[in-house]
Specification:
Rossmann fold; GMP Synthetase, Chain A, domain 3; alpha/beta; homodimer; 8-stranded mixed sheet
Chain lengths: 537, 537
């Protein structure tokens, strides 16, 4: 009790939603559809839903999968799962049944909560996994007054080291890994973000990113921690997002392609002064977009983050956006960030290396994957695989996501996973997948396919074959039938050479963003450049 | 690494000042005298001072005492001690040499840093403790360029469970106890406060409370965590505080008596809209003062806190001040607060009981005092000894500080300590000390003295006798020669009976604050009531 030297003591805090409902019961917690529950109402709704989870046999440590689009019921389900002491497994609704089945099995989920739009997928999953029970989201969150109160943790305390959710990311091997994110990871992320962006009593966050991604889910938790209203959109719609900003939204998170669509839709009208900050993540933001946003009085903050660090790692304050174009800013207060060479030594300013991150927002590891965990986490440092450099003033510039990662419209695509799908086709001997620069989506998925002797297949047929196995956003939009594929001495695919050879003409990655030294003059309003690209795959 | 169940893992974050200097190097960290160092400058100054501490042999875990009035050098010393991994022992400059010697010995301090005003006291202490080395504050923080860089923790990480400082509070037994406060205690307090009061990029805190108290020290640490400017005043001066607010101070902490003097000095002028919040702690605030402040457009937030919880426990948001007069608000987000009866059961709404507190702002215990620690901390709950109640909406009303505590002008006075001093006089057989309601100071110290047979001493002589042994603010301002003293069957002083008998006519404690239900109409501007009382003892 009276040691001076510190050490490991569990940190416990009151359960966020319960405490928030006690502190500011009458504040609006959520806005969505025609509903706007207060924190007191949300707390009662979470209690009712937790009672139904209890009736369904969900207890402490059980994993509850959630397959649903954005809605207020999604939020209620998240809080109900936490209140039962269970662990949330949010599923990407764009995945195929096979992809979903793999995650459900790996996480050991016994209950799948699903919304109406995903009912067929849910039933198909239950048909092949007889241990998996189903619970319609509407039933979980019904407000018929019949539900018993929660049998959950009456003490209402959270151990910050306990796991809140498991979010799958694909990996370099093509096998998705379940990132464990603790209550502490989310809380420290929320605290670090607030210390950077500030906190105002009338803050309202717009959640228009998918809530099953860390970028969306963390908004929900920030809302409860801050006591801020969260407006939930069923899906991203540029006009609706712009209207929400005019209606009082002060903060939102988007990816580049969403930002562009909002600016297009906005046309000539400036954004209101009440808009405090637009966080733009999910890959580098083209400079012309930053300039365009500035011309429309939209305060943009570029951010670099990843699932393994509960979203934000570094964020450029809006006031610096104009003078540090292309930078992802500086780390959050609780976060350490370094750029290291192959031997783990810090790189000098300006020299690129691997971005490594340490601090209380970093995952304790991957589920059921001790080797991957040991590889990613060394002495507490998360090795992101992403390449960047720090300038002399300590600003991070992200040059390239991890060697093989493709970021398309904010979704991560791992080539190995797509290559494995292609190579499952009987006509395909081998395949290499890479990202091609794309003005609208950041990167588009491209494939080089080497056919077997005597094999024959069209691009259209391969695309259809992939669609059965992969989420649509992972399916290549361009196929080259060519070969042979360059390999290293050890037989590994030489990805850099693949891109150099087949991405000819189009840049390997989004163009390196320009660095402006010092604080230049205000940016001139750019001529809108809006190529009319076809809709995403 | 992949447990789902939580548990104890040490939480480490980058050292605040180092990280803050990296994040916002050019922001003004401190204002005081004619200096206004940036965070980068303060960081370099702390490094230089830490180098001097290293030369003086200070290493990890050593306790460094600091005997100094408020100044920027005080702040530099605080950060230098932390950077060496040493533990800060801030000393109350109003204490007598004997009181200081006791704390130095109990804490095992080997180095005493002192400012010019306290040089005589420091030398006297060193003369009686030959193991105590002295280091003038001006020498520690000199900017002559000769100091080596810090040999401190190059990794620059903080373990949140490590002790940052030891702050002594007197106890019911009269023996002061060293409250251990960890880095985590201060960080969680800062986070909890920001989640309540909000955070703005242009926030400026005024530190006009003594920095050796938790109320002042925590402002310094909040400044670094938030990246907010802290303006340091050498001592409280109502006119200077008002000028600072006109000059851009947005937040400050005061006690009632300071608030009253500021309002007196302000006369008819309203406070500017830039003033976000005035936290008023250190005991109940008389309703007429709250009304007066409201009439002057000063947003006041009553707060309840104590050293053992790193300052704030509960705070009433300024927006609610008018509708909840007398309330100390609701707990900070990371803090649990209950009111319990003698068996530890939660009291119903409106029923008074002991205020107990749990959460990451609560001290791990008292130094060298396992029994007192075990008594105060039970299952994580800090038993404050203070009496209050929660209303049906969960607002805390503090009725009475712990049974025997006198709060006079924001300083805590423990009767047992004063009684022991009185009973050391050869003419005194026994003494009882209690607080008498006082409009200006909240409470004034009063004594009932029973003389020995044949003993004779005047009030003036007893006052002089006390002054040699006790800080001036502890010396009774009124003596009653009377007796016998009421005692319980076990022979303990019956303090309630003492107060009932000898405090007759003057209220026992500050009048119970009125509770207004609901949100009443805006308060009418009160007629200023400003009794001209003599200056404090």
């Amino acid at each position: 009790m009276t040691t001076l030297d510190g050490g490991a003591r569990p940190t416990r805090v009151p359960e966020w939603l319960r405490q928030r409902a006690a502190l500011t019961p009458d504040r609006i917690a959520l806005i969505g559809g025609d509903e706007a529950p207060t924190f007191a109402a949300l707390d009662a709704q979470a209690d009712a839903a937790a009672g139904r989870l209890a009736s369904a046999g969900v207890g402490r440590g059980d994993r509850v999968a959630l397959l649903a689009a954005n809605s207020l019921d999604f939020v209620r389900a998240v809080h109900a799962v936490g209140r039962r002491g269970a662990v949330l497994l949010p599923l990407n609704v764009r995945l195929t049944p096979a992809e979903l089945a793999w995650q459900l099995a790996d996480a050991g989920a016994r209950l799948l909560v699903f919304d109406a739009a995903n009912a067929d997928a849910a039933r198909a999953l239950a048909a092949t996994d007889h241990g998996l029970r189903l619970l319609p989201l509407a039933e979980l969150t019904a407000r018929d007054g019949a539900a018993a109160g929660s049998e959950g943790d009456r003490e209402g305390m959270i151990d910050l080291a306990a796991v809140h959710s498991i979010i799958y990311t694909s990996g370099t091997t093509g096998r998705p890994k379940g990132v464990l994110l603790t209550y502490g990871n989310y809380l420290w992320s929320a605290v670090g973000s607030a210390l950077n962006l500030g906190l105002a009593a009338d803050d309202r966050w717009l959640a228009c990113l998918p809530l099953f991604h860390v970028g969306g889910l963390s908004i929900l938790l920030r809302g409860v921690i801050y006591g801020a209203t969260v407006e939930v959109h069923a899906a991203f719609d540029a006009a609706a997002a712009n209207r929400a900003i005019d209606g009082g939204v002060t903060l939102l998170s988007v990816v580049s392609t969403m930002l562009e669509r909002m600016l297009e839709e906005r046309a000539e009208r400036d954004y209101p002064a009440s808009l405090r900050c637009v966080l733009v993540g999910g890959g580098p933001v083209p400079p012309h977009l930053l300039e365009w946003a500035t011309a429309r009085a939209m305060p943009v903050a570029q951010t670099y983050g990843l699932t393994e660090a509960a979203s934000q790692v570094a964020t450029l304050a809006p006031a610096e956006a104009a003078s540090r174009i292309g930078a992802a800013g500086k780390p959050l207060l609780p976060t350490e960030l370094r750029v290291v060479d192959g031997e783990g030594r810090a790189c000098p300013a300006g020299a690129p290396g691997e971005i490594v991150v340490r601090g209380p927002t970093v995952t304790p590891g991957y589920l059921n994957a001790p080797e991957e965990t040991a590889r990613a986490l060394r002495e507490g440092w998360l090795h992101t695989g992403d390449i960047g450099y720090l300038d002399a003033a300590g600003y991070l510039y992200v040059l390239d996501r991890r060697d093989d990662l493709i970021v398309s419209g904010g979704e991560n695509v791992y080539p190995a996973e797509v290559e494995a799908a292609l190579e499952a086709h009987p006509a395909v001997r081998e395949a290499a997948v890479f990202g091609r620069a794309d003005r609208r989506w950041g990167q588009a998925v491209s494939a080089v396919v080497v056919l077997r002797e005597g094999g024959a297949v069209t691009a259209a047929a391969l695309s259809a074959f992939c669609r059965e196995r992969l989420a649509a956003f992972k399916v290549p939009t361009r196929f080259e039938f060519d070969g042979p594929l360059p390999r290293t001495a050890a037989g590994k695919l030489a990805r850099h050479q693949v891109r150099e050879r087949w991405a000819a003409g189009s840049a390997l990655t989004p163009p390196r963003t320009r660095v402006r030294a010092g604080r230049g003059p205000p940016l001139a309003r750019p001529a809108p450049r809006r190529p009319r690209l076809p809709p995403p795959p």
